[in-house]
Amino acid sequence: MNSDQTGILKIHRIPNFVGRIRSYSILVDGTRVNSIKDGETAEIRLLPGHHNIIVKLDWTKSNSINVNIEPGQIKRLHIGREQIKGLKLVALKGFYILLILIGAITGIGAFIGVGVAMLVIHRTGKLKLF
Questions:
Q1: What is the pTM of this model?
Q2: Please, what's the b/e burial string for 16-34 (b: 16 or more CB within 10 A of its CB; e: otherwise)?
Q3: CA nearest 11: which of 77, 81, 65?
Q4: Backbone angles phi, psi at 120, to 5 degrees
Q5: What is the pLDDT along the chain (130 residues), one digit of tens a residue?
Q6: What are the φ and ψ backbone dihedral angles of 90, each rounded to 5 degrees?
Q7: How far apart are CA 23 and CA 80, in angstroms?
Q8: DSSP code at position 64
Q9: Alpha helices, DSSP H only, in the chain?
Q10: How far is CA 59 from the centre of its chain?
């Protein structure tokens, strides 16, 4: 592709503890074109026109965004995880504390381990492309 006839899509992955060691796949018009690691920015040359962008990690995928690329244009997107807030966050944290208590009462260490792990790492929601 001649650089005068293409545009550039830059996607920055916002650093996050959850999934830090995993690479996300970048799909343009349903085809995997690149991958992106935690904190990196991927640069993809695209032909002019409308393109559908999705980022995937295993069975999880982001929302899709349609972009219109023009020759010589640079478009920027970010990929991150939505923050869980409000009552949903309170309910999740309460559930994890309940797991710890059940483990302490019954002596089943797995409940304690899962509860503690989820309290530490579960602060984010689904993938969000913006």
A1: 0.68
A2: eeebeeeebebbbeeeebb
A3: 77
A4: -75, -45
A5: 566 799 999 999 988 766 778 899 999 999 999 999 999 999 999 999 999 999 998 888 888 999 999 999 999 999 887 766 778 777 888 888 888 888 889 988 888 888 887 776 655 566 677 6
A6: -60, -45
A7: 12
A8: -
A9: 86-106, 109-121
A10: 12
| CATH pick for 3-82 out of 3.20.20.70, 2.60.40.1120, 1.20.1740.10, 3.30.1300.30 | 2.60.40.1120
User: How many residues comprise the chain?
Assistant: 130
Q: How far is CA 7 from the centre of its chain?
A: 24
* Cα 57 to Cα 64, 110, 120, 130, distances in angstroms: 14, 27, 21, 16
Q: Is 126 exposed, middle or buried (0-12, 13-18, 19+ CB in 10 A)?
A: exposed
Q: How many CB atoms lie within 10 A of CB 105?
A: 9
Angle value at C-alpha 61, between 83 and 57, nearest 5 degrees: 95
Output the six-digit token pair for 123: 């602060």
